[in-house]
Structure formats: structure tokens, C-alpha cells
Specification:
With 523 residues, the chain is mostly beta strands. It is 1% helix and 42% strand. A hairpin with an 8-residue loop joins strand 17 and strand 18 (269-276). GO terms for molecular function: allantoicase activity; ureidoglycolate hydrolase activity; ureidoglycolate lyase activity.
């Protein structure tokens, strides 16, 4: 059992660990030494230089020792190592020692650099086994030199410890508080049968399902799995990214997120109610109940099981007075004041548009080159003699005009020009029809979508206010009677609008309300 399972693997290729130089690696590709996945057996396979192994193997008869220099993914204090000789039997490294130091990140140390400090004196190794070596916590280092005596093979090398956290200088700057480089850590999971929980906070989006967190299939009704994340520092949370990259048939059906400042008290606050997830994409959700509390831990609960690639929890170290969450949006007045002076300073975060986050407000209309990334239940068939794919009925028309009104459904075109300021000043709704807006160009920076549900007073429910950025390849359908901002584009754009209207449209089905104080839309 790995005694360093609670620590961060600072040497891993997944955190950016790289091999800078080495004395010899005749038989193998030495980069395998830092791979995330365990070394596979290649028994019986041969290449031009001999038997194949995954790891680092040098030539025989070295009179001194072989070495390789590794740059860690980030600076950190080391507490131990795993020198893994799996599948090397008769050609394993008989002994190793390990040196390290902290230096500028843009240098390439030499084998005889005088700054090397020994962290692990020469110790014996055996064949086909993990060798765990614990050391007293080191001072921060970012370069490691692995020495093997006199030659041989090592399948994997893992240097464990804790990172030197990297936080913004400006305490009001938004960043990922859960990221491994920010000092985040996955403290535990309910299950990690196929992929370990610590992968959730690694950099990047990974390369396959193997470098995410995936639980085994559950068979009991009501089952759920969870992962507990300690943030790099206590902070005020704003929004979360849940990435299901590569998980197409095994993503969670839904998830919910809780936060706490003292996990020993077992008092949790729901910051994301149970929300459906989709396959193979980054989901972005604005968090709730985070205005007045700074949190240290986050727990994600998935229903009933499945896989997630990464979790990003964005926030700040200090609370910003002009960051406006939905519950704090100014009152909305049923009066249009065209002479209103904009008040800048309050803002609402704009998150990338995804089908799951937009589902309470309508539908996202988009094609998926990777059919496995389409929302579950989407009917997809070949079309045009196999040269196209048809995504069936992504949205239906919806209207409830009286029969005698003579309302008909048609296509209109909006030609929209960008504005200098992105502010929410007015909202509108169409009580009798849904509306589809389909971009007529796949170029440009896209457009903004700001929506809110209707409250008990018939006005927008500010607690449900959300802002999204749509790409030029995404269309939207507003639900009937949904409050929304008029079309706001980042570049000049044309849209086809599909809606039901009375006659020639001279009878307006449009209710408009003005905000008493505009809200800046923060890109």
C-alpha cells in the first residue's frame, strides 16, 4: 500500500514533471519514468535494442552510476519517493540515491552542479517491486536527480510531497482555489475503483479516462459517491467547473456540491443543488449561498456513480464589495427610463454556455462533431447520403396564443451590432411564445445570454439570474415567458429568429422591465 497516497506526486507528467537530461537510456524511452499509469508488462516483446520495457533502462557494465535529472511540475517540499522496478527482474537497478535543489525554473542543471543536496542516501532496490522511501520533509525544491548504481532499469519514479502554493498577488483576483498548484488537495473519496480522486485537481484536461476520477458501477437504489477537496486557502467562492472530458457513457447522471469552513463540525452548506451533467464537456455553474462566507473545503456528490476528469472551484481570497451574486441584484422596476445613467461597479460573472447549465431556461441548439458528447437522449441519424449528421428535434415550438388571434410561426432575421458596455439594464419576456435565435455565421467572439425565471410577483426572480457566453456555433431557445436580456453581441452578427407572432408583428408580445441600477456583465 502506498504510504504517500495523501501527498501530491510532484514529479508526475500530469503535473508537468519532465526529464531534462540523463546519462543513458539505451533500451527504453526514459519519459515513461514519469507516466501516470502503472508500468505495463511487455514480456515477450522485442525492439531493435532488445527486450521492451516501460520505464528507464540503461546499458550494462557502467563503472560508476547512471543518472537522470527531473524538473518537478511545481516547487514543493518532498516527504518520500516510490522507486518502482515493476517487470524489471534480473535487469533492475540494484541501488539508488536521490539529490535535489531549488533553482530558477528556466535553467537546465548539470549532473555535477554544486547545488545538489542529497535527500536520500544510497539504498538497495530489488526486482519487480515498489520501493517506498520516507524522508524528513525537505526544504522547497524543484529539481531532482535520480541516481542508480551502477546501471539497470526502473519502471516508474514518483516524488511525493506538498506544493509551495501559488496564489494571486491581488486578493480580489479570481482563481482556482482547488488547483494542485494553489495547494489544493483531495482528502478522500467514497470509491476510486477506476481512477483516483487526486486526479480531479491536476492541470489540464488529461488524455483519457485513466487520468480522471471514476467510481465503480453501483447497483443499489439511491447510491451516490463523493470526493472531498481541501482548498489551497480559505476563500470566497463564485463558480465551479466540472469537466467530464472523455467520460461519454460513464459520466455521472447528476451532481451536487457542498462547502464547509470546519469539516470537524460536519456542517455543510449546499452551494450547488443537484444538477444534471452531460458527457465529455466542461460544465460551468454559478454557486449559491457563498456571498457571506469564506470556505475551506468542498465536497462533490455524484449520483449514482461515474467519472469526472477535473474540478475547478473559482473564487477570491477576499470578498469583493462589487461582486454581485443573484440575490443581490438591484430591484427591477416596470418602467423604461431611456435617460437612465449607467452605474458601473457591480458585476455578474459570465460563464460559458452549456446545455446542462442552461436547461432551466431553455435549450442550446448545437451540433456535436463527436456524437458521444451530445446530450443523453439526443437522436442522431446519418443524412444527405452519409455526408451529414442530423440532430433531431433539439427543441419544439411552444405558443399559447388564442386561436382567434391568427398567430403564425415564422422566421425573422436580427442584425445585431455590438455595444461598448456590457450591462444588464433591461429585461424582457414573451408571454405566449418561445423564441429561437440561431447565429448565421460561425465566426466572431459570440454573444451574451442573460436570463432569469419569473418570480411570484410576475417579475424576474433575481435569485435565478444567470449570464452565459455563447459561441457563434451555438443557438439558443428561450422558454416561453422567460425573462431575458435583449440580444447582446460581442461582434456584429446576424441571427435567424423562430417565433410565433400575431399578424405582421405590429401587435407586440413583449413585456419590458428596467433595472433601477444596471449590473455590469463581467467577462
Amino acid at each position: 500500500m502506498n504510504p504517500f497516497a495523501h501527498a501530491t506526486e510532484l514529479s508526475s507528467a500530469a503535473t508537468g514533471g519532465t526529464i531534462l537530461s540523463y546519462s543513458d537510456s539505451w533500451f527504453t524511452d526514459i519519459n515513461h519514468l514519469l507516466y501516470v499509469e502503472p508500468a505495463p508488462s511487455l514480456k515477450g516483446q522485442f525492439g531493435p535494442n532488445g527486450a521492451l520495457f516501460s520505464g528507464w533502462e540503461s546499458r550494462r557494465h557502467n563503472p560508476t552510476y547512471d543518472w537522470c535529472i527531473i524538473k518537478l511540475g511545481t516547487s514543493g517540499s518532498l516527504i518520500g519517493f516510490d522507486v518502482d522496478t515493476s517487470h524489471f527482474n534480473g535487469n533492475e537497478a540494484p541501488a539508488v540515491s536521490i539529490d535535489a535543489f531549488l533553482g530558477p525554473p528556466d535553467i537546465s542543471p548539470t549532473e555535477d552542479d554544486p547545488r545538489w543536496t542529497q535527500l536520500l542516501a544510497r539504498v538497495p532496490c530489488g526486482p519487480n517491486a515498489h520501493h517506498y522511501f520516507e524522508i524528513a520533509p525537505s526544504t522547497p525544491v524543484n529539481y531532482v536527480k535520480l541516481n542508480m548504481y551502477p546501471d539497470g532499469g526502473i519502471a516508474r519514479f514518483r516524488a511525493y510531497g506538498s506544493v509551495v502554493p501559488v496564489h494571486p498577488v491581488d486578493p480580489l483576483e479570481t482563481f482556482d482555489l482547488a488547483h494542485v498548484f494553489a495547494g489544493g488537495a483531495v482528502l478522500g473519496t467514497s470509491d476510486q475503483h477506476f481512477g483516483v480522486g487526486s486526479n480531479l485537481i491536476l492541470p489540464g484536461r488529461g488524455k483519457d479516462m485513466g487520468d480522471g476520477w471514476e467510481t465503480k458501477r453501483s447497483r443499489e437504489p439511491g447510491h451516490c459517491d463523493w470526493a472531498l477537496i481541501q482548498l489551497g486557502k480559505q476563500g470566497y467562492l463564485q463558480y465551479i467547473e466540472i469537466d467530464t472530458a472523455h467520460f461519454k457513457g460513464n459520466f455521472p447522471e447528476s451532481c451536487e456540491v457542498l462547502a464547509a469552513t470546519d469539516i470537524s463540525a460536519d456542517k455543510w452548506t449546499e452551494i450547488l443543488p443537484r444538477t444534471k451533467l452531460g458527457p465529455h464537456r466542461q460544465h460551468y455553474f454559478l454557486l449559491q449561498n457563498v456571498r457571506d462566507a469564506a470556505y475551506t473545503h468542498v465536497k462533490i456528490i455524484i449520483h449514482p456513480d461515474g467519472g469526472i476528469k477535473r474540478i475547478r472551484i473559482f473564487g477570491t481570497l477576499e470578498q469583493s464589495d462589487n461582486f454581485v451574486l443573484p440575490a443581490d441584484v438591484p430591484n427591477i422596476a416596470p418602467v423604461i427610463d431611456t435617460a437612465q445613467t449607467p452605474i458601473v461597479g457591480m458585476h455578474l460573472p459570465i460563464l460559458p454556455l452549456t446545455p446542462e447549465a442552461f436547461a432551466p431556461f431553455g435549450q442550446v441548439i448545437a451540433a456535436y462533431r463527436d456524437h458521444g458528447a451530445a446530450p443523453k437522449g439526443t437522436k442522431i441519424t446519418p443524412a444527405n447520403f452519409g455526408s451529414a449528421s442530423k440532430f433531431h428535434k433539439l427543441s419544439l415550438l411552444d405558443s399559447d396564443y388564442p386561436a382567434e388571434s391568427g398567430a403564425t410561426t415564422g422566421l425573422s432575421v436580427y442584425h445585431c451590432k455590438p455595444t461598448d458596455l456590457f450591462q444588464l439594464t433591461h429585461m424582457e419576456r414573451h408571454a405566449h411564445t418561445n423564441q429561437a435565435f440561431i447565429p448565421m455565421s460561425g465566426q466572431g467572439r459570440g454573444y451574451l445570454v442573460v436570463v432569469a425565471q419569473t418570480g411570484s410577483d410576475g417579475k424576474p426572480d433575481v435569485k435565478t439570474l444567470r449570464a452565459f457566453k455563447a459561441s457563434p456555433s451555438q443557438g439558443i431557445v428561450y422558454k416561453k415567458a422567460l425573462w431575458h436580456q435583449p440580444m447582446t453581441v460581442l461582434d456584429e452578427m446576424d441571427f435567424t429568429c423562430v417565433e410565433t407572432q400575431v399578424g405582421d408583428g405590429s401587435i407586440a408580445d413583449c413585456e419590458i422591465l428596467a433595472l433601477e441600477s444596471p449590473v455590469e456583465l463581467k467577462l
